[in-house]
């Protein structure tokens, strides 16, 4: 599992590097033909992993402790201009939240989870390992979206 965590962290560092090369205006821009922007895709990966690992598994009762969840959860769209401060906080959360999940994994927090089907594919997630492997694909899907959005700025 160390390799899985390392891959997630390295992928998020690459996403952060992409964000660092753009202005706040570019991060917030929704190009013609799209319904979201680069910073929404980044925020979405940050909140989704936490929600999948803690809420959908039954570890936490609800997503109230997942900061920014209401703005970046599945089926949302950008509704306001994100500030530099929020971008900085999302970048910190992107890495800190994975370190917290890694720590909780090592401490057995996820030893017994409630299985659940993914909303997109309907595939049942039966273990934290499956969820984290799915996270790799999900994060990189949205990184790809962000790259496409960048080409259309």
Textual characterization of the structure:
This protein has 153 residues and is an all-alpha fold. Helix content is 61%, strand content 3%. The protein is built from six helices and two strands. The protein has helices at residues 2-20, 24-28, 38-55, 69-72, 84-106, 128-151; strands at residues 116-117, 124-125. The chain has a two-stranded antiparallel sheet. α1 (2-20) packs antiparallel against α5 and α3 (38-55) packs antiparallel against α6. The mean pLDDT is 97.
Helix content: 55-70%
Mean pLDDT: 97
Query: What portion of residues belong to β-strands?
Result: under 5%
Terminal CA distance: 37 Å
Helix and strand composition category: mainly alpha
Shape: globular
The radius of gyration is 15 Å
Poorly predicted regions: none
Can you count the beta strands?
2
Furnish the topology, listing elements before pairings:
Blueprint: H1 2-20, H2 24-28, H3 38-55, H4 69-72, H5 84-106, E1 116-117, E2 124-125, H6 128-151
Antiparallel strand pairs: 1-2
Helix pairs in contact: 1-5, 1-6, 3-5, 3-6
């Amino acid at each position: 599992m160390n390799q899985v965590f390392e891959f997630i962290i390295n992928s998020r560092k690459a996403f952060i590097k992409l964000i660092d090369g753009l202005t706040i205006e570019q991060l917030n821009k929704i190009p013609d033909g799209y319904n979201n922007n680069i910073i929404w895709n980044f925020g979405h990966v940050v909140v989704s992993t936490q929600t999948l690992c803690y809420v959908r598994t039954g570890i936490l009762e609800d997503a109230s402790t997942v900061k920014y969840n209401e703005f970046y959860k599945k089926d949302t769209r950008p509704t306001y201009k994100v500030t530099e401060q929020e971008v900085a906080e999302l970048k910190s959360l992107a890495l800190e939240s994975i370190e917290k999940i890694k720590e909780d994994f090592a401490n057995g927090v996820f030893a017994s989870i409630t299985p659940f089907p993914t909303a997109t594919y309907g595939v049942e997630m039966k273990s934290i390992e499956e969820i984290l492997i799915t996270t790799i694909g999900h994060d990189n899907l949205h990184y790809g979206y962000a790259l496409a959005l960048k080409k259309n700025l």
